[in-house]
Design a protein that fits this description.
With 213 residues, the protein is an alpha+beta fold. It has a single domain, classed as Glutaredoxin (3-Layer(aba) Sandwich), CATH 3.40.30. Helices cover 52% and strands 13% of the residues. The chain is built from twelve helices and six strands. It has helices at residues 3-6, 9-13, 34-40, 44-50, 55-70, 73-80, 97-100, 103-112, 127-132, 163-172, 178-192, 195-212, and strands spanning 21-22, 86-91, 116-121, 140-141, 144-149, 154-159. The strands form two sheets. The chain has a four-stranded mixed sheet, with helices on both faces. It has a two-stranded antiparallel sheet with strand order 1-4. α5 crosses α8 (103-112). It is globular, with a radius of gyration of 16 Å. The protein starts with a helix and ends with a helix.
C-alpha cells in the first residue's frame, strides 16, 4: 500500500476553511482506468487508521454510521435488491470536514451490502475525477465519490456534500464569516446524522440499476 495515499493530512489542512474545495488545475487528456485506481485505493479501515487530522470527527461518525444502519436495514436491502455490483471510488483527505461527515456512512453501507465496495484514493492520484465532477458552483472538491459498475464504468457521482446542504452553502457561504459558516454546517451534519448522504447514494445506485435494465 502506498503510504502517500493513506496519509493525506498535510494536503487536507489547506482544505479546512474552504469547504474542502481545491484549486483548479488543468485536466489530463488520458483515458481514466477506474479499475486500476480502485485497486490502488485504501480500504476505509486503512484510511481511518492512518488518519491524523479530524480523527475524533472520523471516529465519532464511524460509530454513528454503525448505529444508523442498525436502525435502517432497508437501505442495505435496497442496495442488494438492485441488479449488478457496484463500487464507490472515493477521492478524499482526512482533513476535509465534508469527507469526515459523509464517507463513514458510505463506508458502513459498503461493508454491509454484499454487492457494494469502497476504496479511497488521494486527490494527487485522482484529480481528473474531481475536475470531471465539479460542484454546482463549479469547484473541484473532496469528497468526490464516483459510482462504478461491475465493468468499471462511471454511472454516477456524489460530490462534496448532500444536495440540501450544498444548496444552503452555495447560497450563504459568501455572506458569512468562515467560523459561522462552519458552525452552521456542522450543526446541519449533526442533525442529519448521515441520513441524507445514505439516501442520495442509495438512490444513485437504484437509478444506475434501472438504466442498466
Amino acid at each position: 500500500m502506498n503510504t502517500r495515499k493513506l496519509l493525506p493530512a498535510v494536503f487536507g489542512i489547506a482544505l479546512l476553511l474552504v469547504g474542502c474545495a481545491t484549486a483548479q488545475d488543468s485536466t489530463t487528456d488520458a483515458t481514466p482506468d477506474y479499475d486500476v485506481l480502485f485497486g490502488s485505493g485504501a480500504t476505509y479501515e486503512e484510511f481511518l487508521e492512518a488518519a491524523t487530522s479530524r480523527k475524533g470527527m472520523w471516529t465519532a461518525n464511524t460509530d454513528s454510521a454503525a448505529k444508523l444502519l442498525d436502525r435502517s436495514a432497508d437501505l442495505v436491502r435496497r442496495v442488494e435488491d438492485t441488479a449488478g455490483e457496484y463500487r464507490m471510488l472515493v477521492v478524499a483527505v482526512d482533513g476535509c470536514s465534508d469527507s469526515a461527515n459523509t464517507i463513514p456512512y458510505l463506508a458502513h453501507l459498503a461493508a454491509n451490502a454484499r454487492n457494494l465496495e469502497l476504496r479511497i484514493v488521494h486527490p494527487d492520484d485522482a484529480r481528473h475525477i474531481m475536475e470531471g465532477n465539479r460542484t454546482p458552483d463549479g469547484r473541484a472538491a473532496t469528497p468526490t465519490v464516483l459510482l462504478l459498475n461491475k465493468a468499471g464504468g462511471s454511472v454516477g457521482a456524489f460530490v462534496e456534500r448532500p444536495s440540501a446542504l450544498q444548496d444552503w452553502a452555495i447560497a450563504n457561504k459568501s455572506s458569512m464569516r468562515s467560523r459561522d459558516f462552519m458552525r452552521e454546517k456542522f450543526a446541519w451534519y449533526d442533525a442529519d446524522g448521515g441520513r441524507s448522504t445514505l439516501a442520495e447514494m442509495v438512490a444513485l445506485i437504484e437509478t444506475a440499476a434501472s438504466v442498466r435494465q
